Amino acid sequence: QRIPFCHFADGAKPFHNVATQFALYGGNPCQKQSFGSGFKKSGAAGGGQQSDKTPLFTFKRTVAGTGRFVLTDILYNLRLLWENVVPRRCAVCNTIIHDGAFCSQCRVDFALHKMVEDGNEFNLLYFLFKYKDELRDLIRAVKFQNCTRYIPYLREEAFLAMGTGWSDFLQQYDYVTWIPTSTDRREERQFELAEKIFTFLPQEKLKSVLVRTRKTAPLFSMNREERQKELAGCFAIKTDVRDKRILLVDDIYTTGSTGREAARTLHKGGAKYVDMLGFSASKDNWD
C-alpha cells in the first residue's frame, strides 16, 4: 500500500529559526512541532480528496556540495549569523522572517501541494509550489544569473513544504534522483538545481542515476510530438535500476516532456515504478 505524501500545513507557524538549526546545528526542525498533512489529489478528471496521515519525519543533515558550494555554505552560515543583526526579510512583503524566502502568509500564495495520479510514465506526481512571481525570479536568478546564494533559501522552502511524513514516505523508494542537464550546461553551472534543493533528504536515497547522451534543441516552440521526437533517447542509465522504486525530482515541472522521457528510460532499464516530485510547477499544472 502506497504511503500518502505529507506536507507543511498552509498557515501553520514554522518552527522558530529553522534555517539556523538546519544549516548550523543539524537539529530536527520538525521535532515538537505540530504540522498538518494532506495533499490536494487529482486524476484525469480532478479531485480534491485529502490525506489525513501524519507519520513522523526524521531529519538528517547532509553536506550541500563541494568546491564553490562549500564557499556558498560558509557564506550562508555567516549570513545566518549576520541575520541576528540585520534580519532576513520576505521576498514579497519585506516582513522579517526566520526561514526560507517568504513569510508564512506570502508562502500560502505560492503553495500548490498537489498530487496527480498519472498512470502513464509516472505513477504519481507531486508538486510543492506554483512557479510564479518572486519564486520564479529566485529560480531564474539561480539558473541563469549564477546567484547560488539563493539555493539554501529554496532548500529551506522545500523542507518546510514537505514537513513531516518523509521517513515513512521515502520507504517507498530505493532511489531519489534528478533529471540531468546537458553536459555544457552542467559545466557552465557546476550543479544540478534539483539535486541541490533536495540535498536534505537522506544520503542513502540520493543517487545520480541518469546521464544525458546528447544535446537537445530548445523545446519551448515545439508541440508535444516534436518534443517527444527531439528528446527520444537523450538519456542513459549509469546505475542498475532493475526492480528499483524511483522518485524523480525536478526544480520546475512544465509540460513534463523531459521528465517523461527520463521516466521511460528508467522503465526500459527495469525500474519497478517512477514517481515525480516537482519543487515548482507551471500554471498549466495548477488545476
Would you summarize the structure shown here?
The chain has helices at residues 18-25, 68-82, 104-110, 133-145, 151-162, 166-169, 183-189, 193-197, 224-231, 257-268, and strands at residues 40-43, 46-47, 88-89, 96-97, 111-117, 124-130, 175-178, 210-212, 235-237, 245-253, 273-281. Mean pLDDT is 77; it is low at 6-39 and 44-68.
Structural description of this entry:
- This protein is α/β, with parallel strands linked by helices.
- The chain contains ten helices and eleven strands.
- The protein has helices at 18-25, 68-82, 104-110, 133-145, 151-162, 166-169, 183-189, 193-197, 224-231, 257-268; strands at residues 40-43, 46-47, 88-89, 96-97, 111-117, 124-130, 175-178, 210-212, 235-237, 245-253, 273-281.
- The strands form three sheets. It has a seven-stranded mixed β-sheet.
- Strand 5 and strand 6 (124-130) form a beta hairpin.
- Helix 1 (18-25) packs across helix 2.
- The relative contact order is 0.16.
- Residues 6-39 and 44-68 have low confidence and may be disordered.
